[in-house]
Specification:
Blueprint (H helix, E strand, L loop, with lengths): L12 E5 L4 H12 L3 E6 L2 H10 L5 E5 L8 H6 L7 E4 L15 H29 L2 E6 L12 H21 L4 E8 L13 H11 L9 H12 L10 E4 L7
The structure holds nicotinamide-adenine-dinucleotide.
The site of nicotinamide-adenine-dinucleotide (NAD) has 29 residues, from helix 1.
Amino acid sequence: MVTSASTRFEGRTVIVTGAGSGIGLATAERLLAEGARVVAADVSPTRLADLADRHTGASLVTVVADLSAPADVEPVVAAAEGRVDGLANVAGIMDGFVPPAEVTDEHWSHVFSVNLDSMMRLTRAVLPAMLAAGRGAIVNVASEASLRGSAAGVAYTASKHAVVGLTRSTAFFYAPKGVRANAVAPGGVATNIDATFASEWGRERVTPYLAADLPPVATPDQLAAVIVWLLSEESSDVNGVVLPVDGGWSTV
Ligand SMILES: NC(=O)c1ccc[n+]([C@@H]2O[C@H](COP(=O)([O-])OP(=O)(O)OC[C@H]3O[C@@H](n4cnc5c(N)ncnc54)[C@H](O)[C@@H]3O)[C@@H](O)[C@H]2O)c1
């Protein structure tokens, strides 16, 4: 729940993916509360309809899009109508904790298409507007699995490590042009993400690490607060970082 009456996003347009649930939903609602025009994209029409029902009259545009499909990126960017001050690449899926010996090509490709390819394509698509404006902020949601090998299966872990590379590369290339790119690496967050095991060895190997004395599970709004800060001018000199938002898990 947003308690501040900040209007720091008045007149700004921000695209949020995965806006139907969890971290993306909390980010979209925080941005709306702070005055942004929000383009909310998600693969779930019902979740987006619920969001729209709660924000009638607000500057909210919802776009149903399967962001693993290249063709679904363009309508999301078009809904921003030429102005993109921020992009929050939040949409992502887990991978059933499947280890390398068991991963199929289809599973690997699907996880990468949602977790990484969608972020690259949206980044590429919003950059012309940001570069023309000489400003813009991109925030990619990475993961604790960007920092270690024991938090997920191989496809999720590799895709989230690659999100870090996408973030750093984008920050490097466009820092001189006024465009920033940062990532957050959440630990456990209470959302609808599917964290079930699809592999017995995955369950056996990973469970002790997830059952260790880790920090408490976060709320989606704890993540949204940091994502929105990284999208705002208040973080204007922060660029290319991968910020753990995990209660200290990354120190364990
Ligand atoms: N929940 C956690 O513990 C946790 C930890 C670390 C990182 N993350 C990351 O946070 C991000 C958000 O996840 P969440 O926990 O809020 O999960 P969530 O499942 O609650 O929300 C994810 C949203 O993304 C949407 N989505 C999934 N595939 C999509 C696609 N192909 N196209 C468009 N939208 C799609 C879903 O419909 C859903 O509304 C993900 O990138 C996830 O990897 C989550």
